[in-house]
Amino acid sequence: MNYLFLDIETVPIKINNEDVKEYLMDKKISKERRSMDPNYSKIITIGLKSNDKLELFYGDNEKELLVKFWDLVNKDVIIVTHNGYGFDIPFLLIRSIVNNVLPKNINLNPWQMLNSNHFDTMLFFSQHSNFTNPRLDILAKLNNINTPEERILGNEVEKFYKQGNWEKIKERCTQDIELLEKVFNKLCKNYIENYKR
To answer: What is the C-alpha R_g of the chain?
Structure first.
């Protein structure tokens, strides 16, 4: 099976419209919440790893990043994420529509995850939120999988973006993809491959 490990990094977009600013204030939508919402944020990095080849698409041209991503996705690949059904995939879909990039028609059904083109380790280990949603690094530590000693946190991405520090943003994305791959290979791969026989 061909697995494609995926992670994205996002930052809030600058809001200039006064009506939108007022709405955000009225609804008490914080900057932190906006950074997790594709209506108010944009993708600045898409990280992919397949067959030991890591690719990072990054920069301010979100449309270009999305075109490159969808060019690599096909029905023969299984996308592996951590919280991909809750974040990465819907974010990619909405930002693709906003940028007039047509997403590919792939099977992304969370309720039939084992028969879809997307396997989400968070969804699997929480069993569709029946249990606690484990953070990726916590899931790794619980199962004796090495994690980077100095892990860059998601809430640091915007700071690095404002500094123009793309190396730190790429490092953050790379850390998550490599940790995701370790977790998946140790805990999920045999299960999926036995199930799909």
So the answer is: 17
Structure tokens at 113: 């995850």
- Find out whether 82 and 26 touch, Cβ atoms under 8 Å: no
Residue 23 has pLDDT above 90, yes or no: no
Nearest in space to 183 (alpha carbons), one of 49, 55, 37? 49
What residues form DSSP beta bridges with 11? 42
Task: Note the pLDDT of residue 63.
Answer: 97
DSSP labels for 128-154? TTTS----HHHHHHHTT----SSPPPG
pLDDT in the model for residue 110 = 63
Are 136 and 82 in contact, with CB atoms under 8 Å apart? yes
Those residues with Cβ within 8 angstroms of residue 13's Cβ, 6 or more apart along the chain or in another chain:
40, 41, 42
For domain 2-195, the CATH architecture is: 2-Layer Sandwich (3.30)
Domain range list for the chain: 2-195
pTM comes to: 0.90
Question: Mapping DSSP to helix (H, G, I), strand (E, B) and coil, where does residue 94 land?
Answer: helix
Q: Is residue 185 helix, strand or coil?
A: helix
**Which residue do the tokens 């028969």 mark?**
115
In the chain, DSSP assigns E strands to: 2-12, 41-50, 53-58, 77-81, 118-120
